[in-house]
Known about the structure:
It is built from 19 helices and 18 strands. It has helices spanning 18-30, 86-89, 107-121, 138-141, 143-150, 201-208, 217-222, 226-229, 233-238, 275-286, 308-320, 333-345, 358-367, 383-390, 400-405, 411-416, 429-443, 446-458, 464-478, and strands at residues 2-6, 36-42, 55-63, 66-75, 78-84, 133-137, 159-164, 172-173, 194-195, 198-200, 211-214, 243-245, 295-302, 324-331, 350-354, 370-373, 393-397, 422-424.
Amino acid sequence: MRVLSVASEAYPIIKTGGLADVVGALPAALAPHGVALTTFLPGYPALAAVTKRAKVVHRYTDLLGAEARILKAKIGDHPLLVLDAPALFARGGGPYGDATGADWPDNWRRFAAFSRAAADLASGAVPGYAFDILHAHDWQAAMAPAYLRYAPGPAKPARTVVTIHNIAFQGRYGYDIFADLALPDIAFALDGVEYYGGVGYLKAGLEAADAITTVSPTYAAEIRRAEFGMGLEGLINDRASRVTGIVNGIDPAVWNPETDASLPARYTTRTLARRRTNKRAIETLFGLDTEDGPLFTVVSRLTGQKGMDVLAGALDELVTLGGRLALLGSGDIELEHAFLAAAERHPGRIGVRIGYDEPVSHLLQGGADAILIPSRFEPCGLTQLYGLAYGCIPVVARTGGLADTVIDANEAAIAAGVATGIQHDGVTPEALSHALRRTLSLYARPDRWAMLQRNAMRADFSWDESGRRYANLYSSLLEPA
């Protein structure tokens, strides 16, 4: 099967979050299942190195108002296509906003043009290219199925899949942009791209897609409810028969404590004591006291969705209980200031680095004892999967993919020898306090803690099963009706 994977980012070329890790891992994950996957990305400056000698396979004189080319390159050993449109993507800052974090005001045009080009590739408008499936990821690519539905190219359009990585981000714009989207008037309808009087990119993709996936079974159920569906729960319920939850995997070539070059000391389930060397490295890097007491970590966007406001309020108690914290993240200015203030109140006990650093994130997983993930909602989450792989015990809210991937260390699970982490119900000060105390109680029993670590590291969250499920979904869409 020939699949075009359309996304706004992909590791290791361009990354702002877990979406990039998933998109970057999919080609290798699907290859064993008979899927030839080509990744399609916007031509950000970060792609200059991989497109330096790229072949031009198509040119646009007017792609929603911009000159553009489609370039043929590679991402690792796998095929890559890039939309080279300097007026849209050759700019500083990040993929979605400027250096201050403000969204680019023309994001509607940038990602509509990207989706239009993806639809051209998937419907015969680009000579030499044909795909069986177009797989669009999140709102930035979700208009591609809508273009295939309302304005396809000359050949039979590919079947379409839209994956919701986070339904909170939808790409909503006013009606005034519709005339510039190069769609027929019929597309502006309740079952088309119209959304509360404007244009909804994710909504349009969900209406047009032949299949919808989310990144965990629990999240697939949660988004049918108003508290998680973010206004799209009615559409999800109407199309429930086409919605599937498939848990993300992680790439063991990238996340493996036995081979990770970012770790001062590499280790296995049989050599857990080597983690102490990594713990010392974290203490030095974050200015923390050197000791063998429990070291918590956070690697996260600092937002309310991630429960960081509740965690910020629990830091004094965490220190009082004997814990320390090393935090790597950025986000809401108020929350950044709250964590920095806690570090000033508790020197040697709390260390904070604002920003993101990939090698440091690996070090934190490989040396900290537990990772805190108190998310209010979490479609899948990859951070807890990294924690499991590295024996950094996840302490998580019972929601979405966190609930699907972490086995709570209750007495029954401990007795059965299957526990891998700590779950808590709700994201409240009381729930988080209880989870911290449970974690510290388990840590105080080295035999139980080592069992948790070994169980976590033996859990299989590779892409093997998830890759098979995606391949089966693709195949089902190509079967005769």
